[in-house]
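Weekly structure sync, notes
Attendees: PL, DS, HV (note-taker this week)

Item 1: Quinone oxidoreductase
DS walked through the input record. Source organism listed as Halocynthiibacter styelae. Sequence as pasted into the shared doc:
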Amino acid sequence: MPAGIGVEGAGVIEALGPEATGFSVGDRVAYIGGPAGAYSELRNIPIARLVKLPDWITDEIAAATIFKGLTAEYLIHRCVPVQADQWVLFHAAAGGVGSLACQWLRATGARVIGTVGSEEKIEIARANGCEHVFLSHDPDLAQKVRDLSGGVHVVYDSIGADTFIASLDSLRPRGSMVSIGAASGPPPEVNVGELVRRGSLHLTRPSIAHYTADPLEYQEASNRLFDALKEGSVQPAKITEFTLSDAANAQRLIEARKTTGSVVLRPN
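Item 1 (cont.): predicted structure, written out as tokens:
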């Protein structure tokens, strides 16, 4: 301390540095990344981290959706572009990113198999567009996925240690494994020969930082997300609002898993 926290938000530009270009005072913008400090009423942020908001979207939806939505966007449109009728396995299909990604995958015509951590979340994943839903800790997960699909084209795995091998074993030859997190711990080290043995698999560990580093690509990706929201291909999660002065309470509720959807902090 002193330190700031928060890496996503939305607001209005009140002033620009002398060398800032491409934006004007009064523009409505959103951002992800850059220096931490989103828990604030006023802040400085590099202009390269800003994207312009369309008139129709509210600050609340933009702030609640921008990070998770852009994560879903780059995963399914740019990291491994998913095509209609391809089979996809998406872990944590009832989570923040998973909910948006599975909706979007359904809209593209992909066939989605989701996993969830409990029986209570199965219907949520189905509502998000999953044709089939399994528990992520099912010991027969890979076999069940292969029986349904003949092996999926892509796996998106945010769980890590507990599901990594099952994810590899769920792929068809030349399929793609996208490791995007480690909720259960780091994935095991993989001998590259195992990728050959399983059918010349592709393995990547992407970061949103590398998919939003170019300002033009960053804005184009954001526009793709905003279009999907406007068309209804993706429905934003329920939003719970707190004031900045109540941020500590909001954090406690999140940590206790007593909130659902997205949490937004508003100026006091």
